[in-house]
Automatic annotation (TrEMBL):
Known catalytic reactions: 3-hydroxy-2-methylpropanoate + NAD(+) = 2-methyl-3-oxopropanoate + NADH + H(+)
Active site: 171
Residues of the 3-hydroxyisobutyrate dehydrogenase-like NAD-binding domain: 165-291
InterPro entries xref list: 3-OH-isobutyrate_DH-rel_CS (IPR002204), 6-PGluconate_DH-like_C_sf (IPR008927), 6PGD_dom2 (IPR013328), 6PGDH_NADP-bd (IPR006115), HIBADH (IPR011548), HIBADH-like_NADP-bd (IPR029154), HIBADH-related (IPR015815), NAD(P)-bd_dom_sf (IPR036291)
Highest rank taxon of the organism: Bacteria
Name assigned to this protein: 3-hydroxyisobutyrate dehydrogenase
Similarity section: Belongs to the HIBADH-related family.
Pfam families the UniProt entry points to: NAD_binding_11 (PF14833), NAD_binding_2 (PF03446)
Keyword annotations: Branched-chain amino acid catabolism, NAD, Oxidoreductase
E.C. number: 1.1.1.31
Pathway(s) it belongs to: Amino-acid degradation; L-valine degradation
Gene Ontology molecular function: 3-hydroxyisobutyrate dehydrogenase activity; NAD binding; NADP binding
Length: 295
């Protein structure tokens, strides 16, 4: 069992840390918001006064923070986690951040004799609670084999995508594709409905034809087709529009750096951006279907 320091106990980090306690690991937690630590402490974790205090005695450090600037701020510099960690410590940053920061932090950790994986997740708060997250890791195979044993306490499918930053790249590629097929699924269903087709019947036809895709199969954006989907629950998230927009923003930034053509991803970002600005930022991302409905 590992001795884990878990930093960043928000919507995702909180339940992930609880699952590590349940899996039998020694867990010490820290968050800037005191109350965020309570639920995990109630399950048996110890509370640290600062992020650096959480390092004491930890062989594994997991972070789950909002964005790249928070990760760089915590890891780098003379007072950062990397400078203060004991040799051999394994870091796993599960936040969704830009690949460049992930590479920079990963290389800084390796240069210091530490191990580091970027390990962003697929799956939302429900998957974090259920311990069914997918992890997409970037780093070396030695760190991956070691980290996998801990990640198994929080998730099911754990992949090594490549070197530092590769986990973040896998994540933005996946979510850009998700945005594109969600929008395509929504507009196809609405086109059918505008022609008098029953969206349930059309969904069944497309599920058994070449239009079959994950959004149609698991997350139907048309209300009342799939009782368990957010579309049948007033588009309560689920996966919020603002989080999809964040991931599409990271994909677009990376496409500029790598000079990659991403016309479909770029259009998806524009559509989600204008949808978000109309008061939909905190609704489920499948609500994009409403863009195709006449007022
Ligand atoms: P959140 O805002 O709920 O939680 C972030 C936590 O980090 C907060 O509690 C905040 O106080 C803490 N924090 C920030 N800076 C800190 C610091 N320096 N030291 C200690 N604590 C600090 O965010 P979330 O929804 O838990 O998401 C976390 C990450 O996971 C993000 O990168 C997000 O994009 C990604 N993600 C979220 C979801 C989701 O459905 N919420 C799904 C997949 C991936």
């Amino acid at each position: 069992m590992a001795n884990v320091a878990f930093i960043g106990l928000g919507n995702m980090g909180g339940p992930m840390a609880v699952n590590l306690v349940k899996a039998g690991h020694q867990v010490t937690v820290f968050d800037l918001v005191d109350a965020a630590m309570d639920a995990v402490v109630a399950q048996g974790a110890s509370k640290a006064a600062t992020a650096l205090d959480a390092l004491a005695g930890a062989d594994t450090v997991i972070t789950m923070l909002p964005a790249g600037k928070h990760v760089a701020g915590l890891y780098l510099g003379d007072e950062g986690l990397i400078a203060k960690a004991s040799t051999g410590t394994l870091f796993m940053d599960c936040s969704t951040i830009d690949a460049e920061t992930a590479r920079k932090v990963g290389e800084a950790a390796t240069a210091q004799g530490l191990q580091m994986l970027d390990a962003p997740v697929s799956g939302g708060v429900k998957a974090a609670q259920a311990g069914t997250l997918a992890f997409m890791c970037g780093g070396d195979t030695v760190a991956f084999e070691r980290g996998k044993k801990v990640l198994e306490g929080m998730g099911k499918n754990i992949f090594l995508a490549g070197d530092h930053g590769a986990g973040q790249i896998a994540k933005i590629c996946n979510n850009m594709l998700l945005a594109v097929h969600m929008i395509g699924t929504a507009e196809a269903l609405q086109l059918g409905a505008n022609n008098g087709l029953d969206p349930k019947v059309l969904s069944e036809i497309m599920l058994n034809s070449s239009g079959k895709n994950w959004s149609l199969e698991n997350y139907n954006p048309y209300p009342e087709v799939m009782p368990t989907a957010p579309a049948s629950n007033d588009y309560k998230p689920g996966f919020m529009v603002q989080l999809m927009l964040k991931d599409l923003g990271l994909a677009m930034e990376n496409s500029l750096v790598t000079q990659s053509a991403v016309p479909m991803g770029s259009l998806a970002r524009s559509l989600y951006s204008s949808f978000s600005q109309k008061g939909n930022a905190q609704r489920d991302f499948s609500a994009i279907l409403e863009m195709f409905q006449s007022e």
